[in-house]
Amino acid sequence: GNSVTQMEGPVTLSEEAFLTINCTYTATGYPSLFWYVQYPGEGLQLLLKATKADDKGSNKGFEATYRKETTSFHLEKGSVQVSDSAVYFCALSERDGGATNKLIFGTGTLLAVQP
Amino acid sequence: NAGVTQTPKFQVLKTGQSMTLQCAQDMNHEYMSWYRQDPGMGLRLIHYSVGAGITDQGEVPNGYNVSRSTTEDFPLRLLSAAPSQTSVYFCASSYSSLDNYGYTFGSGTRLTVV
Predict the structure, then answer these.
(1) Contact B99 A32 (CB under 8 A)
(2) Which end of chain A offers a freer environment for a tag, N or C, measured as fewer CB atoms within 10 Å?
């Protein structure tokens, strides 16, 4: 079945460092891909998305490009801040019975940014 | 708009007790889902619904029931709580096309079964 694999965490960075969180997927068809962020004690918030190959999603300085040839959707940010400390989840949409009605999530990657 | 509202935020149950986790959304979303979040396992889909009167099982449905009598509400029932159901539960909703919108999540219910 469809699945999402994320790099293990935690990822610890100093403020203003470059961030990459790897995400690869296995899927039939052409899913949409998402990054969600979860701040401590809160629910998940949609960070960015891409709906087809070569699309780039971006938001709040974060970017990810839908790479069909490498089945990847890596999250990047050029300069992280302490406020970016959170858990990041990669996800894909799954089609069942003709309708896209599920999101499949990776295990999440904890990012800790130190001042 | 309130978005997706989950109650309660915290709950402690004894093994064998039953309870209902409430979820309501005021965005007229057709799609609703329940996920559980456990350390090292990400979010796993319990049940989902694509509209009022329609529900289906996700990855980990055992021990849980759902119903969708209205568009707004999607309660999750634990029939006989077990320690393995200790988790954080998230309700989510979306417009019909998950491809374009993804899910909007509630703030979660932290459940402990002793």
Answers:
(1) yes
(2) C
A6-37 pLDDT, tens per residue?
A: 988 899 999 999 999 999 999 988 889 999 99
B20-74, pLDDT tens digit by residue?
A: 999 999 999 999 999 999 988 889 999 999 899 999 999 999 999 999 999 999 9
Distance in angstroms (rounded) separating the CA atoms of residues B74 and B9: 16
A87 Cβ under 8 Å from any chain B Cβ = no
Amino acid at A59: N
Give the distance from residue A110's alpha carbon to the nearest chain B alpha carbon, in angstroms: 11
B46 contacts B35 by C-beta, under 8 angstroms: yes
Q: What is the dihedral of CA B52, B81, A104, B96, to 10 degrees?
A: 10
